Amino acid sequence: MTISRRQFLSTLAMSSLGATRLLSEIRTSPVPAKACAWSDNLNPKMIAIVGDVQRTSLAELSFMGRGQYDAEREAILSAIGDDKPDMVMMLGDQVVAGDDEAQWTYFDECMQKINDGRIPVYSMLGNHDYGEDRGRCLRNYTERFPHLDGRQSMVKIGSLAIVSVNSNFDQLRSSEIRQQEEDYNKWLKELDADPAVRGIIVASHHPPYTNSDLGANREVIEMFAKPFLAARKTRLYLAGHVHSYERFVAGDKTFVTSGGGGGPRRLVDNSSSRPFQNDAYRIGTLRPFHYIRLKIGENELKGEVVMLQRGKFHVGDRFAVGLYG
After folding, report:
1. Could you say which DSSP state residue 323 is in?
2. For position 16, what pLDDT does the model report?
3. Which of 117, 153, 240, 319 lies in the 20 to 30 Å Cα band around 178?
4. Which domains does the chain have, with CATH numbers?
5. pTM of the model
């Protein structure tokens, strides 16, 4: 396999661990992808949730002065492996450029403990998982997640259901967007009517609400958040994209943005004039790298937000969401 000049420069710029890491990333022959485990009969008691584990891009490093956070990313994914959850949920942006095989090889290395533990992984496509060569991006993605193709999907896990949607609208044809909207609303109605389902988790890469400078995503609000708010059994909306932690509460429903897996962090507005005043987490404007342990009880979901500060993990936020019925 040959590498392009763009891939070489990207690898060079994004290597923060010296010549050993650099040489390990520039491959002269193909390296087999490491597929993540999956099972269609899961009934998890604990799910680890992490978003945006991608490395910092060349442009961000060169022109925006952002840092590279390999140690934090690797520590988070290693800690998830040590937790031995029943399932891992990844909220998109696994890599910084989906058509760059070197970045996927690094992703495989970071996921080694999770993969060696045969922990099932459920993932979705983020905007960075796409790239210049769409076909190569989707091939690289499905090699790691062969049970997924990046489109919307619905899976039942015990008394819960997860509905994930592709919020990368600029990568979808108008017919795909319409079909996704139809499927999404159909699934919510079917799950509301299913007596075996006591809670619905919805996930998209882009969050509907944020107090960061990325701003609210109006398409996500209209297409996904409003039906989520209208359904009876929807309880938790998960998203990444914003490299921070945010939590918003609307009645018996909670919106969580968890994009702290290793991408360069983003400031969140904590002022009295912030756009969304129903934020239930108000600590700091530059929030720590983190992942979430979601514990599934008989009558509620309990979240522990595990934050990494000064090389140590601690639980920085907790939330609970009651199940239906």
Report:
1. P
2. 39
3. 240
4. 44-322 (3.60.21.10)
5. 0.91
